[in-house]
């Protein structure tokens, strides 16, 4: 608890901080040799750490082993008028977990990552600093017939993922990761540790999809495990433009959300080398699927509902659920499960992403123009994740994540680049914004909805002071629709001074703030 006495004087007393750090190994000042490595350790989008233009580096990085160290970090930061950032897996698309425009300290939860499975009750307690891969691995070590419905990339952190919603291949059967959270421990702005009962249902609602960083630091989550069959089936069938990809994707839009809940078929569109002409590029659609059952049940389903794809037995592989996790993450079937424990992502790169929700099928002519635009860029993806099933059964207001019935699928657009620089990033950002504009007539409107976990600062950023609620509504209703107001009311109750703030944090609802 005592470290913040030193942290208080960081400018003048750097040496003291370093000595202290050596003893306790939880505080790293910029003089520490570990600091640069730690800062970059889990960032996914190197655009931010190397950019000194729009953000500062943390004055200190704190890597707590115990909740008391987080309590101290919060109180110390507050006392000295600094800001605080919390990072679990570091996958925030805009780097908001580790960058800030004003002096701040970074609390990195990398050391708080235990997973405690209770198979008898079919629940687990998982700390925020664990990754999805660590969670999936721990479940698989205990049971072959349990899993958890969360995202596809194993290096994503639990803290950001669950607090922003979180979905993956079992979304149509079991909903979001956040739908399967039943308790949590959070440290609030006063340093109090609160579980569900103590924090109350409003705050517990807010942290399951409203973004945790606006409300406190979430230490751990109690989750419901779900049953998975001992054998599941996966397939990936790819078709290029020349092989009728547009017609197939067009057809997919009518059926993917209505299929059996056990069947998840997403589409990944990307530009690739043309196999028939090495010098040319083409666009390819990959139909990438998990079926929660065996091949002999999958084939009749596919033949009946999506015969146009021409799925063959040879395209499919039966495996365990945990092997399917490796498959979707891009590993080989025979890779050891331990690859899930690797916190280094396979996907680190400079990138910009945006998201949409489609409520009507895009006509073939629209798809054709989108794909023509793909050929203008080098590394681009459009990932379409089907909704329906369980997502239709959950009311929009159940959790802050409102994108339920009425959505055919979620779209994520992603452009990546290898050589960074102001010119390069401007070019790619410009292209992405053009594509997004082009998509306007085809996707949800009023609001044009977006997914918080695919954070996009183009949607708007916070202003200052009393106006921040109305200003923030510009981006807030896109992520949360009518739930935005309730989030702001909760914020007004638990953090009326808006201590926990960032470019896209929930502002306190003004009436409540004034009424205090
Ligand atoms: P990070 O640590 O950057 O945190 C993200 C946000 O949550 C920040 O605002 C941070 O301050 C806050 N936060 C983190 N821990 C907190 C805590 N303990 N308490 C309070 N606030 C906290 N999504 C999805 O739904 N399905 C998917 O399949 C994927 N796949 C995917 C792949 C790759 C390569 C990337 C980069 C991202 C995804 N995502 C995803 C998006 C992912 O769910 C999203 O970026 C999460 O917010 C990441 O959580 P982290 O803890 O890793 O991020």
UniProtKB/TrEMBL annotation:
The keyword DNA-binding does not apply. InterPro entries: BBE, FAD-bd_PCMH, FAD-bd_PCMH-like_sf, FAD-bd_PCMH_sub1, FAD-bd_PCMH_sub2, Oxid_FAD_bind_N, Oxy_OxRdtase_FAD_BS. Pfam families: BBE (PF08031), FAD_binding_4 (PF01565). Gene3D superfamilies: 3.30.465.10, 3.40.462.20, Uridine Diphospho-n-acetylenolpyruvylglucosamine Reductase, domain 2 (3.30.43.10). Its cofactor is FAD. Transmembrane segments: none annotated. Keywords: FAD, Flavoprotein, Glycoprotein, Nucleotide-binding, Oxidoreductase, Signal. GO terms for molecular function: FAD binding; oxidoreductase activity. Residues 54-228 form the FAD-binding PCMH-type domain. It comes from the Eukaryota. PANTHER family: OS08G0158400 PROTEIN. Belongs to the oxygen-dependent FAD-linked oxidoreductase family. This is FAD-binding PCMH-type domain-containing protein.
């Amino acid at each position: 608890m005592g470290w913040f006495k030193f942290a208080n004087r960081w400018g003048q007393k750097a040496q003291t901080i370093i000595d202290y750090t050596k003893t306790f190994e939880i505080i790293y000042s910029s003089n520490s040799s570990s600091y640069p490595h730690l800062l970059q350790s889990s960032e996914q989008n190197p655009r931010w750490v190397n950019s000194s233009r729009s953000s500062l580096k943390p004055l200190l990085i704190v890597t707590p082993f115990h909740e008391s160290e987080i309590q101290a970090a919060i109180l110390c930061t507050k006392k000295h008028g600094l800001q605080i950032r919390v990072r679990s897996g570091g996958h925030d698309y805009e780097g908001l977990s580790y960058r800030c425009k004003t002096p701040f300290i970074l609390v990195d939860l990398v050391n708080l990552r235990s997973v405690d499975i209770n198979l008898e009750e079919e629940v687990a307690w998982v700390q925020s600093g664990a990754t999805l891969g660590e969670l999936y691995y721990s479940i698989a070590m205990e049971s072959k017939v349990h899993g958890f419905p969360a995202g596809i990339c194993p290096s994503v952190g639990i803290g950001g993922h669950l607090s922003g919603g979180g979905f993956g291949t079992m979304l149509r059967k079991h909903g979001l990761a956040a739908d399967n959270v039943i308790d949590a421990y959070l440290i609030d702005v006063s340093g109090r540790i609160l579980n569900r009962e103590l924090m109350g249902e409003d705050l517990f609602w807010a942290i399951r999809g409203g973004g945790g960083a606006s409300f406190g630091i979430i230490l751990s989550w109690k989750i419901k495990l779900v049953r998975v069959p001992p054998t599941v089936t996966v397939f990936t069938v790819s078709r290029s433009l020349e092989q009728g990809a547009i017609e197939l994707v067009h057809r997919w839009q009518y059926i993917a959300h209505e299929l059996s809940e056990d069947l998840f078929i997403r589409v990944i569109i990307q530009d690739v080398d043309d196999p028939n002409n090495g010098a040319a590029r083409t666009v390819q659609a990959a139909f990438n699927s998990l079926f929660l059952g065996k091949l002999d049940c999958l084939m009749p389903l596919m033949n009946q509902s999506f015969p146009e794809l021409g799925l063959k037995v040879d395209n499919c592989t039966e495996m365990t659920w945990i092997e399917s996790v490796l498959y979707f993450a891009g590993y080989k079937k025979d890779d050891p499960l331990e690859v899930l424990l690797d916190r280094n992502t396979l996907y680190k790169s400079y990138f910009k992403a945006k998201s949409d929700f489609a409520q009507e099928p895009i006509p073939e002519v629209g798809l054709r123009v989108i794909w023509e635009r793909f050929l203008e860029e080098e590394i681009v993806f459009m990932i379409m994740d089907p909704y329906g099933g369980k997502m239709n059964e959950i009311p929009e207001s159940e959790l802050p994540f409102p994108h339920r019935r009425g959505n055919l699928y979620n779209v994520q657009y992603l452009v990546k680049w290898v050589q960074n620089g102001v010119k390069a990033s401007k070019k790619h950002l410009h292209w992405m914004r053009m594509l997004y504009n082009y998509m306007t007539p085809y996707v949800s409107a009023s609001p044009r909805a977006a997914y918080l976990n695919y954070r996009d600062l183009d949607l708007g950023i916070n202003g200052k002071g009393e106006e921040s609620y109305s200003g923030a509504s510009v981006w807030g209703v896109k992520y949360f629709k009518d739930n935005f107001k309730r989030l702001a009311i909760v914020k007004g109750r638990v953090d009326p001074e808006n201590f926990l703030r960032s470019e896209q944090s929930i502002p306190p609802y003004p009436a409540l703030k004034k009424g205090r």
